[in-house]
């Protein structure tokens, strides 16, 4: 009944909610099956990452040679690795590391990339050329090479992986935000508020930012998927999380020497990466469709 | 067209300059003393000082950059710390291996991606479309190094069909190329499908059908030809993922290319070599993007009207 309010003379008056746009998006999102599956999976993984470690019975890092390379069993659900550690336990403990790297590195990229994009798109001219040249230079390094180069000089650790993947994500945010800012700031109502004497800061925070939130969210979701993939790759190369951290890429790197007989040491960490990345990709796809007014619900 | 090529070429100059600055700065991003790290933890002060002198780290940074650029313009990428050979001599024999791996993977990506994308678009909302798109979603959610490991386990170890490592014979090439090409195929498939769907709802496709053309002609000649234009832009980005993906795939399959050399150099803390490889990779990529932009312009003549 929140839509209805009583006016002073007692008649019911319809109150128009300012968030109608978001409720439309929420409705579209609920109708989109892939987005729902992705969203629930992400929620599920988040719960595991927080609560999971309390429910595992084995130690994720303690070496026990008497249980080396055991096949999956009732005791060890997904088998054990070359150091006798339960792979299931390690995967559960690694979930929080994976999500932490994914979210935080994208946050780094966002915090740097979004202001760059807004400044570039809103002020244009010299600032725009300078920022866009910086973005061009960052994008001149193919794919994950910049992240590899940065981690190689900074040294292998989770923090440095977050920095490297974050820097890698900057150009994506900067470009998308610049494009949308440019489009929005040309609209008439921006002209109107400027004519009313609004400052640049007020225009940017109050009128432009709310309008570019949706592409930023879509970009962030897809970027998390990419970030998780790259981070696992860096750890696989030995440039990221170091043993005995139960990071999935590092687990694959160690497991590759022992996969000749039982494949579980290399199979399950990979499946774990695929499922988390898939969840973010599904959710990102769904979000993009929900935010895009051209696609039919 | 020539004017466009020249202008686009000039645009790459500041980018290349920026790349050299960033690559040069890598050495100075090392926490601590790079000379100490490269000489080894336990090296005596005299050795470290010699290393510092050899790398020219005693000079002011602008002087160092000037010298770096000066040498670079003469094709001198510095000296490998580990082998004392010129960096370029270390990289040169491996460039072609990596390029071949990347180009063959690109071809595989394009063949698989375009086929799957067109089939999906033609059979849209059908079972085949759903299956292909689900496969594509898996394809680009999968770490390529993991796919490589699984292929080695399944095809090289269990079935003993193909060699698990190396590069040279065509048998050795198959698994690395599939491993590197799959992710790209998935992205191209998705892009082709959505681009095809955009195109085949256009009026001129209806006209083509209305004038009685065979469905095959409508789809391939009128549909695909126009749907390819946006796909070309993805190919540029794709090539970047493939080039850097060689680092992982070459490590998995023990291919002696530039990517594996990079990892070896990083492990040996041979930073001049790391810098050289990163620079060469970036230059190749800048050049590829130049080619992509030019071909995009060539394909999409509509840009010229605007």
Summed up:
The complex is a heterodimer of chains A (297) and B (306). Chain A has helices at 20-31, 33-55, 87-123, 125-139, 145-154, 158-185, 188-195, 200-236, 248-255, 264-291, and strands spanning 4-6, 12-14.
Explain what you see.
The complex is a heterodimer of chains A (297) and B (306). With 297 residues, chain A is an all-alpha fold. Chain A has a single domain, classed as MetI-like fold (Orthogonal Bundle). Chain A contains 10 helices and 2 strands; from the N terminus they run E-E-H-H-H-H-H-H-H-H-H-H. Chain A has helices at residues 20-31, 33-55, 87-123, 125-139, 145-154, 158-185, 188-195, 200-236, 248-255, 264-291; strands spanning 4-6, 12-14. In chain A, a hairpin with a 5-residue loop joins strand 1 (4-6) and strand 2 (12-14). In chain A, helix 9 (248-255) runs antiparallel to helix 10. Chain B has 306 residues and is mainly alpha-helical. Chain B contains 13 helices and no strands. The longest helix of chain B has 38 residues, at 215-252. The model of chain B has no long low-confidence stretch (mean pLDDT 86).
Largest chain interface and its two residue counts? A-B, 41 and 50 residues
Radius of gyration of chain A, in Å, reads 24 Å
SSE order of chain B: HHHHHHHHHHHHH
Low-confidence stretches of chain A: 1-8
